[in-house]
Amino acid sequence: MDQYLVIGPDGKEFGPIDLNGLQQWIREGRVLKQTRIRKNGGAAIAAESLPEVAETFAPPPAAAATPPIATTVPILPEFKSWEFIGQAWELVKPHWIPLSVMFLILGVIGAVPYVGPCLSFIVGTTLLVGINRAVLGLLAGRAPTIEMMFSGFDRFGQAFVAGLVIAILVSVGLVFLIIPGIFLAIIWSFTNLVIAETNQDFWTAMQTSADLTKGYRWEVFCLCLALIVVAILGLLACCIGIVVAQAVGAVAFALAYRFLQSRQAAPVVVA
């Protein structure tokens, strides 16, 4: 086993220690890159010259702001609302029953006499976290199940506060000439999806959503308008079609979310 002697600034030698001990001293800051080391009684060299400790000196990789894009579904090359909706419809068709039931349950909770609206306000955003996890899983090739909609309670606090803050600020924005409220609703429209797949707190998730929409806010607004049309068509389909329309809307928004993530991660090409 290799043995190392560490030479201090005053020429005093410390050790011998083995490789594990040397790596520990590096992590503790006791051995720097320029610290002289004698390996197995050889000549003194800078610690950074020892290949066996090169990785110990290397800085840890920066944590990603968002997780890697997990999808087996092709990401469209351009932001096109109706193509997202068409792609979403194809994804929903084989799984329309569990996805529709999720939104049906969400609607039934809100329709409970007296306590429904309050109950929906308290747990609605958390249930949407679970639904969005199921939808993102669908994009990654996993079949959704009804139970998945209840998986978001580990993020209850952040989802509730995000929903509350967004509701208050968007309402205030709507009071002031409507447009500010619409703008805030658009930039924060992906907050629940961010909360669903990251550990970001509510405010950071709102900022992440706002960053994702930069350069595409008009397109996101158009997607929202297109989904209103889809919802109307769902209502015309014996009313129950609205839950299928909601499922299509959720998947379309998730596809747009993945598209915006891919655009944000793409390298900037300078001509």
Q: What structural category characterises the helix and strand content?
A: mainly alpha
Shape: elongated
Q: What gap, in angstroms, lies between the N and C termini?
A: 54 Å
**Secondary-structure element sequence?**
EEHEEHHHHHHHHHH
Helix content: 55-70%
- The gyration radius over C-alpha positions equals 27 Å
Structure, explained:
- By secondary structure, this protein is mainly α.
- It has helices spanning 19-27, 54-57, 81-92, 96-111, 116-139, 156-175, 179-187, 191-197, 202-213, 217-236, 241-265; strands spanning 4-7, 13-17, 36-39, 44-46.
- The protein has a four-stranded antiparallel β-sheet with strand order 2-1-3-4.
- The longest helix is centred in the C-terminal third of the chain and has 25 residues, at 241-265.
- It is elongated.
- The chain starts with a strand and ends in a 6-residue tail after the last helix.
- Mean pLDDT is 89; it is low at 267-271.
Provide key terms for this protein.
four-stranded antiparallel β-sheet, 271 residues, mainly alpha, disordered C terminus, single chain
